[in-house]
Amino acid sequence: MPIADVAGDTAGRAALEEVAREMTAAETEGRVVKKLPLSEIDTHHLSRDRMVMDEAEMATLIASIAARGQQTPIEVLPLRGGRYGLISGLRRVEALTALDQDKVLAFVRRPEGSQEAYQSMVEENEIRAGLSFYERAHIAKAAVEQGVYPDVRTAVAGLFVHAAPAKRSKITKFVTICEALGDALRFPAAIPEHLGFALAQALEADARLAGRIATKLTRAAPGDASAERRLLEQALKTPAPSARETLAPGLIWQAEAGRAVLSGKALDEGFLEALKAFAISHAKAKS
User: Fold this and answer.
1) Tens digit of pLDDT for each residue in 257-285?
2) Is residue 69 domain-shared with residue 156, that is, in the same domain?
C-alpha cells in the first residue's frame, strides 16, 4: 500500500476517533438532543415551581408546536428502568401530550446532585415564565422538605442565586405564607406582592391567625382568586379576639389593649363591691 494511502487512512481514523470522543463528551455533558418516548418522562420527579398554567399561553404553545414542531428541547435526567426525570420543560410536555405526540426532544443532563437539578429548573422558569412570589417560595419550601437544602434561607439563596438580595428577602417572606396556609389556599399564586408582605408580617406577629384564616377559607370556599384575596384582606383588618382565661371556677377573664372583662357566676354583689373598692384604691395610688 502506498505511503500516501497509509497516511490517509491513519488521518481518517484519527479524525473519526476525535469525532467519537467529541460525541461521547457531548452526550455525557448533556449537549446532544435525543428523541425520547414521552411516556417515559416523569414530570413529578422534582417538585415543580410552576403551580398555575396560563390557559391562553398554553393554547399558543400548543398551536405553535402543532404548526412548527417542538423547537426547544426539554431537560431531563436519567432514572432507573429507562425512565427520565423532568428538570425543565413542563409546558412543552403538557403541550405534546395534548397533541397526542409520543416523542419529545430532550437534553439528557447528569446533574451532580438534587441542588443542581432544582437550580436548572428554577433558572429556566425565571427566564421564560413570570412566576409569582408564592410559587418561588413554594419550591424553596419543597426543596427543604425533600432534604435538598437544610433550611429555607439556604434554599432561597441556592435556588435564586442570581436574584437581588431584596428579591430573595421577599421570597423568604412568602415562605411564611406557604408554611402557615399552604393547604388552605386555593389560589395562592394570585396573591399580590403587597398583600403577601402584610399577610406574612401578620402571621409572624399572631400565632393563632393562621388557624382563623384557614377556618374562614374552608367555610367560604372562594371560587376564584379575587374572592380569596378579598377574604385575606378582610382577615387582616379583623382584630384578633382576646384570649379567655379562667381565673377560678365561675370567673372568666378577657383582656385586650385598653379593655378588660370579668364574667361568670362568681361575680356576685360582694365580689363586685370588692373589685370596685380595689379599682378606686389603685387609681388613687397611681395619681
Assistant:
1) 566 788 888 888 888 888 888 888 887 77
2) no
* Residue 135 contacts residue 109 (beta carbons within 8 Å): no
First-last CA distance in the chain = 121
Residue of 141, 143, 144, 150 lying closest to 179 (CA atoms): 141
Angle of the 193-205 helix axis to the 225-237 helix axis, nearest 10: 40
**Cα three-residue angle 17-22-23, rounded to 5 degrees:** 95
pTM above 0.85, yes or no: no
Torsion of CA 227, 229, 235, 236, to 10 degrees: -160
The residues pairing with 246 across neighbouring beta strands, listed in sequence order, are: 252
Q: Which domain holds residue 149?
A: 132-239
What pLDDT does 143 receive?
87
Q: Look at residue 59 and tell me if it is in a domain.
A: yes
Residue 137's alpha-carbon distances to 169, 255, 271, in angstroms, are 10, 36, 54
How many angstroms separate the CA atoms of 61 and 66, rounded? 8
Q: What is the distance between the alpha carbons of residues 117 and 86, in angstroms, rounded to a whole number?
A: 9
pLDDT, tens only, 44-61: 877 766 666 778 888 988
